[in-house]
User: Which sequence fits this backbone?
């Protein structure tokens, strides 16, 4: 504890964002470059080095938060980077994309604003790259064992890096043309610039991990044959089967899934396209779904120049303070939070009819109507109560030329034949069944990440990747492993 009075004398100060009018004209990250580092030392001083640091438990990676806070406070960046990377393969990803359940579990958050754990993490990760504290770590010798990892999202990449460093020969198969999964084509550039992803991929290549892009296992490569060629197989394909909205008018043109829309915008940023075929430019956009994916669509539509953007959330507007009875500390509370995209929509007044920023809360879609050419022109909604029952007399109509469905995902996609060809069993909710050791019913085949857990956070995805790597290493070595396993397959976030 570098400053015993830091939490008493220093207020919380977050990484400032660039002015709205400036940042919506480009796709760069929303925060002010270079403005974080001067804040971090005093913010790290606010950490109380609690006797029982609950931030460890609320973070599935078990990040050693008080330790690297103290090291940052003392400006020992090399040691801080070592402690951070000891539990997290990709802290520059989580430092930008994770909603920080660790901060909800910060002991200081009982009666004060939490320590800016996420910002400190991001500062350490960025400093590590700048100072060369994140070198590649190829194994000293190879085990002679081979592993195929299917899927290159955070789970697949974390598993591949851990197994490669353990000495196994690992090949990662990705159906898209670039590595990264949803981090590549689902996360907008303004949340994380993709050069950060490329940097990690090059590190992994230098360590010996092989990558096979534009390869759909189950269609381009026979899944059973792939299993036969390797000593183990890890399925980390994610939960890509999106949820539908079965209401009248769904068949109209102009209604698309979020993951049909977002990848095209990312491809424009990659230079593959001059403009998106689904661009929101000049259109009246309605986003159905109040989660992070909906917010990603919102920020993207604003940057594309939408005429208006409204986001529908079926839940009532949450409060700004934790309800200690319903969601006691240290659980992650459902609060009214203003993401960068919502801040932009509020300041630019993209949705004059919205309750707050661009959101309509407690709103459920009834139907869509269109024009004579079969293109959507309006979304009809109704207010709902806490039980999602329609409130009589509250029907409204929103004009809409482009509707984006951001309703989440139900499990892995089965169209490629991977699951059926391997003979994998599924849980009732559509995820891949596995035992306490991440193993499926098929010998040598393991499942991890959203494909088996269900839709979750990036920090849980990385934790799954590290844990399944330990399970695979134990399987390959006959029962022992030196790899850490931060979580088990049945662990879940802390709730009431």
Assistant:
């Amino acid at each position: 504890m570098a400053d015993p009075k830091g939490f008493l004398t220093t207020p919380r100060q977050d990484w400032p964002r660039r002015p709205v009018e400036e940042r919506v004209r480009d796709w760069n990250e929303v925060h002010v470059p270079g403005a974080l580092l001067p804040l971090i030392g005093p913010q790290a001083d606010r950490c109380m080095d609690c006797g029982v640091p609950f931030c460890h438990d609320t973070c599935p990676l078990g990040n050693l938060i008080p330790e690297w806070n103290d090291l940052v406070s003392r400006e020992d960046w090399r040691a801080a980077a070592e402690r951070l990377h000891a539990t997290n393969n990709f802290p520059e990803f989580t430092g930008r994309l994770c909603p920080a359940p660790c901060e909800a579990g910060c002991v200081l958050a009982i009666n004060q604003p939490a320590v800016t754990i996420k910002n400190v993490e991001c500062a350490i990760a960025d400093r590590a790259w700048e100072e060369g504290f994140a070198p590649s770590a190829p194994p000293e010798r190879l085990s002679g064992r081979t592993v195929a990892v299917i899927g290159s999202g955070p789970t697949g990449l974390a598993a591949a890096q851990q197994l490669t460093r353990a000495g196994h020969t690992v090949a990662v198969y990705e159906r898209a043309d670039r590595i990264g999964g949803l981090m590549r084509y689902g996360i907008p550039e303004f949340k994380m610039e993709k050069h950060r992803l490329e940097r990690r991929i090059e590190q992994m290549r230098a360590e010996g991990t092989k990558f096979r892009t534009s390869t759909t296992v189950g269609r381009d490569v026979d899944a059973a044959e792939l299993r036969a060629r390797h000593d183990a197989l890890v399925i980390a394909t994610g939960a890509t089967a999106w949820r539908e909205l079965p209401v009248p008018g769904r068949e109209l043109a102009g209604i698309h899934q979020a993951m049909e829309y977002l990848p095209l915008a990312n491809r424009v940023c990659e230079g593959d396209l001059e403009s998106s075929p689904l661009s929101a430019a000049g259109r009246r956009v309605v986003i159905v779904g109040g989660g992070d994916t909906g917010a990603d669509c919102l920020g993207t539509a604003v940057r594309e120049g939408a005429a208006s953007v409204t986001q529908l959330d079926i839940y009532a507007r949450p409060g700004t303070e934790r309800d200690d009875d319903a969601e006691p500390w240290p659980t992650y509370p459902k609060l009214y939070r203003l993401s960068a995209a919502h801040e932009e929509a509020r300041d630019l007044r993209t949705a004059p009819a919205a309750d707050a920023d661009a959101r309509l809360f407690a709103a459920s879609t009834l139907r869509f109507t269109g024009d004579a050419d079969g293109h959507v022109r309006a979304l009809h909604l109704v207010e709902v109560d806490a039980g999602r029952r329609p409130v009589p007399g509250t029907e409204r109509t929103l004009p809409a030329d482009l509707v984006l469905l951001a309703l989440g995902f139900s499990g892995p996609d089965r169209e490629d034949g991977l699951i059926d060809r391997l003979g994998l069993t599924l849980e009732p909710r559509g995820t891949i069944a596995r035992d306490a050791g991440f193993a499926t019913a098929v010998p040598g085949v393991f499942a991890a990440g959203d494909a088996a857990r269900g839709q979750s956070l990036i920090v849980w995805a990385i934790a799954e990747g590290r844990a399944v790597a330990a399970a695979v290493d134990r399987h390959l070595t006959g029962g022992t492993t030196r790899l850490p396993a931060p979580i088990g397959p049945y662990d879940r976030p802390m709730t009431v």
